[in-house]
Amino acid sequence: MSIELDLTGKTALITGAGRGIGRDIARKLSSMGANIVINDIASSTDADEAAEELIAAGGNAICLKGDVRNYDEIEKIIKNTLDKFSTIDILVNNAGITKDGLMMRMSEDDWDAVLDINLKGAFHTIKAVTRPMMKQRSGTIINVASIVGVMGNAGQANYVASKAGLIGLTKTTAKELSSRGITCNAVAPGFIRSAMTDQLTDAVKQEYFKAIPLARFGETEDVANVVAFLASDLAKYITGQVIHIDGGLVM
Ligand code: NAP
At what angle do helices 220-231 and 20-31 cross, to 10 degrees? Predict the structure, then answer.
């Protein structure tokens, strides 16, 4: 492994990492030598398995459950991370949900549920890591947004608003923290095969497929690879950017 891709001694917290994209990001960063903190909601049994899998493969990992909507729980997770590994170097805001529907029929509860996890959750984790990263004078934050946050999407007003907001939060975080040696970027995946996209109808899947120049759906590994680059020293001069991982869907 090249020096720049080696994350030995660094610690990464990945939210919503029990399954899907987050779990693959955890696998990838662990394979590069990072200590991994798997976060997911309290009821997730996948999260325990995810940490066990990394340990069985020779990595250092712990599972710290907590809801990104709850600031106190997040603060506790950061404290426990520092107690266990001493530093927090990489934060990946991956936890996210959808509750789709046309706006005229969207309930306030569905709006709030998506904004609370996808956007406020990231605000909580960023706020909680700011102090330790500032003390270290280093750190990188990677937010998992979506191309729909760039292009809009009928039937996803809540989700699109959360991801567009996350892109704005990314740029502001980059500007507020760059003088302390901390970078913040977003990735914007297109259609990635996961439990989230499994819920979509075949008709919707076909529509997406026709619009993808590289003529395949993305895999969770496609996202993990770009996050790995952004987490590494190869990306140390990149901040405030949004990297599309979508097979060319949005150009
Ligand atoms: P996923 O399989 O549904 O994974 C999401 C994870 O987040 C789950 O493990 C979920 O836990 C966890 N989570 C939900 N609420 C949480 C909370 N309050 N606190 C902590 N963790 C929570 O979805 P995915 O496809 O891997 O998506 C991961 C991220 O990529 C999301 O932010 C999503 O918006 C984004 N994204 C996905 C796609 C795609 O095509 N799949 C495209 C663009 C962006 P449970 O297992 O308990 O539900």
Answer: 50
